[in-house]
Amino acid sequence: MTAQSDQPAVPTTKVVQITNIAPQATKDQMQTLFGFLGKIEDIRLYPTIRDVSVPVQSRICYVKFFDAICVGVAQHMTNTVFIDRALIVTPYNSTTNDIPDEYRALEIAAQASVVPGLYGNNSKLPPHVTNQIEGTQPNQVITTHDPALVANNLPMYPPLPINYDSVRIEEIRRTLLISNLDPSVTAQQIIDFFSKAGDVKYVRFCKKELENGINYALIEFSEQTSIINALKLNGVEMGGKSITVGHSTVNIDKPQAKSNEAAQREIEEAMTRVKEAQNLISAAIDPVIGILSKDKKRGRSRSRSRRRSRSRS
């Protein structure tokens, strides 16, 4: 007979993944929180960027312990409320038993939808267009390889920062920078001109403060494949000037649609301010009205007394 043990199996991995972390959480806070469970070998909190211009709704953390038994203990931290979120702790298995880099971690989060709102998995890049990480930390960058650019002898994609999410990368790879535009050229003319390359989704002018007054515009296509024909328009005359067409390293900022809850909240806040203003106005007016009413009563009493004195005489 084979002896069976009632003891739970020790996890083979030393790494745990913590999701649903509040965006304001810091690496030091996570270190303190999970440091009580055992000695930590390494810890990473993604996204590493903290910039108000890059909204993050949630963060994801990886903790590597020296002892694999700590992984089982750490899972009991699931549903622990930290700041304003209930944490979700799961083992992270990999062949190297290491913490994934930032790009890979965010891809995992997006694909598994383990972190709602972190970064959506809405990438529309064709299968033959691939992203990869190059360089060593802290100088890693994301490079995008498109065989169609090589086949058509067109310039390669420029590298992008490591902290860019997949959706933002995909938007940038569909966006081109058009320079040396004539100042009289309109957005509609740009759309009409580049529609021969593919469906144009957005156009945004961005004039740089240069002595020569060169005008720039960003143009985003609906499909990444459209940039091949668009890049071939480099050097073609438009509006009497030879334009320059190249890759962009930024995406076009779009106005974010507000949710019904946010809109309702803003309405309620506006109504509150209106009521406060009305109360202030009333508080300022009431004393004046009181004085006027008193003066009016005094005037009436004086006129009555005058009438009485006249009637007596």
TrEMBL record:
Region described as Disordered: spans on this chain: 294-313
Annotated GO CC locations: nucleoplasm
Protein keywords: RNA-binding
Keyword RNA-binding: yes
Domain RRM: 174-250
Basic residues: compositionally biased ranges: 295-313
GO molecular function: RNA binding
InterPro entries recorded: Nucleotide-bd_a/b_plait_sf (IPR012677), RBD_domain_sf (IPR035979), RRM_dom (IPR000504)
Matches recorded under Pfam families: RRM_1 (PF00076)
SMART domains: RRM (SM00360)
Protein's name according to its UniProt entry: Putative splicing factor, arginine/serine-rich 7
Gene name, Swiss-Prot/TrEMBL: rsp-7_1
